[in-house]
Amino acid sequence: MRSASVVAVVLLAVPAFAYDAPPLQSYSKPVADGKFVLVMLRPGKNDFKPDLRAKYGKSGLYPADDPTKPLWTCDWCADYHQNVVVTADGEWAVRVADTETGLRHWLLGIEGRAVPKPGDVWQDRPAVMIYRKGQLVHTLAVKDVFDPGRFTDRDLFMGPVMQIDAFEADTGRVWVSTPLADGTRQSAIVDTRNGAVSDKHNGGWFDDGTPKCGNNGPSDGWDRWVWVGLIGTGVVGIGAAAVIGLTVLLVRMQKR
Predict the structure, then answer these.
(1) CB–CB of 191/173 below 8 Å?
(2) Cα torsion 155, 160, 163, 168: sign
(3) Is the bond leading into 148 cis (omega within 30 degrees of zero)?
């Protein structure tokens, strides 16, 4: 019985170590074809980039060759670099709501997992935030950008997830989307300079006419899913091998 209990504990422990979210940290990214540097500094003392904080001092937009004269600074911070973009003139910035998509995907992948009802407040949650010279000027809720009736409970679990798929730095138009559980996504175009939403699509993918992101804020969602899947598979495989090995060892010890 004791050996069986040990095996049960190990089996229960394996899923707990199947996903380990990467820690959030400060970062900088070149924007506007490298003319500027967008700096996002994480609040608090547990920052993995102290040199970045020492160099810039505060989140904001800086000339690529001068960290002492920011074009603007801000009190907000986008968790992930792919969730924020800046126009070519450096005046406007747009970001989508941050979501820890790796953990969400992992939890949704657990067979038979019950997904709680989201309630009604999710429709009013911020989806797209627009800033001028670092100051918030427009906040678009989920219902402003997408069709609330298209979301299922699984789509809303720890979400909905917002992505920037493409961005025109010169015009300020940004293509945003939210992936759905059925493999499709809702998408729309937001005008950074006035907050107007246009060209909404439900359930389809962008055609070949969608402009490419380049260095202005690519969505690496697909790559991230691949890596999460590979890492998760590897961890589960190692865990399964450990369980099998432990089981064999315990059986041999009992026989002795």
Answers:
(1) yes
(2) positive
(3) no
DSSP type of residue 81: G
> The dihedral of CA 188, 189, 190, 196: what is its sign?
negative
Mapped onto helix, strand or coil, the DSSP state of residue 37 is: strand
Q: Which helix (H) or strand (E) holds 10?
A: helix 2-16
Nearest to 99 by CA among 87, 110, 109, 107: 107
Q: Specify the 3-state DSSP secondary structure of 218.
A: coil
76-113 residue pLDDT tens: 999 999 999 999 999 999 999 998 777 777 777 776 67
Instruction: Answer yes or no: are the C-beta atoms of 250 and 1 closer than 8 Å.
Output: no
Give residue-wise pLDDT tens across range 134-159.
999 999 999 999 999 888 888 888 77
- The order of strands in the sheet holding 197-202 is 163-167, 173-179, 185-191, 197-202
Residues with Cβ within 8 Å of residue 89, at least 6 apart in sequence: 32
Residue 121 has φ and ψ, to the nearest 5°, of -70, -20
What is the DSSP secondary-structure string of 116-155? Answer: PP--SGGGGSEEEEEEETTEEEEEEEHHHHS-GGG--HHH
Each domain of the chain, given as residue ranges in start order, spans 2-255
DSSP 169: T
Q: How far apart (Å, rounded) are the C-alpha atoms in residues 98 and 77? A: 10
User: Amino acid identity of 64?
Assistant: A
Identify the residue whose tokens are 């961005």.
167
